[in-house]
Amino acid sequence: LQACLADSIDLYNMTRHAHWNVKGPQFPSLHALFETFYTQMALDIDEIAERLVQLGGTAMGTSQHVASATRLEPYPADLRMGADHLEALLARYVAVAKATREGIDTADEAGDADTADLLTNVSQNLDKAVWMM
């Protein structure tokens, strides 16, 4: 769960970055789309963190921890055009979706159906974002 949390927080921040910095003819639609993505992600992050704490862990969500724990490639800071942001975000959403599905398998193997169910919901939200992109 901690790995999923770090990746999700990092992806959330990348999505906010894209939302703030997107330019070009697709600006209005992408600006709004990215907002829907990070809004959903904020809810999912909260669920992951709370589940982690329920299981006796500590939800490590500080910027310093996330920066050292994320498994995602750094987001290019120089992107501006909508298509470039879509390409960069899509690759990272696909990576987080894959890692989340691996988390589902790990939870299943540990006999933790509740965590597997939570991560399944997160996975569905990520898959929807991938489809929308």
Description:
It contains five helices and no strands. By secondary structure, it is an all-alpha fold. Helix 1 packs antiparallel against helix 2 and helix 1 runs antiparallel to helix 4. The longest helix has 28 residues, at 27-54. The protein is elongated.
Keyphrases for this structure?
elongated; 133 residues; mainly alpha
Largest sheet: none
Distance between the termini: 26 Å
| Structural class assignment | mainly alpha
Question: How large is the count of helical segments?
Answer: 5
Rounded to the nearest angstrom, the radius of gyration is 15 Å
Query: What is the share of helical residues?
Result: over 70%
Tally the beta strands. 0
Taken as a percent bin, the fraction of beta residues is: under 5%
Overall outline: elongated
Low-confidence stretches: none
Roughly what is the average pLDDT, rounded to an integer? 97
SSE string, helices as H and strands as E: HHHHH
What multimeric state do the chains show? single chain
Write the layout of secondary structure elements.
Blueprint: H1 2-21, H2 27-54, H3 63-69, H4 82-109, H5 113-132
Helix pairs in contact: 1-2, 1-3, 1-4, 2-5, 4-5
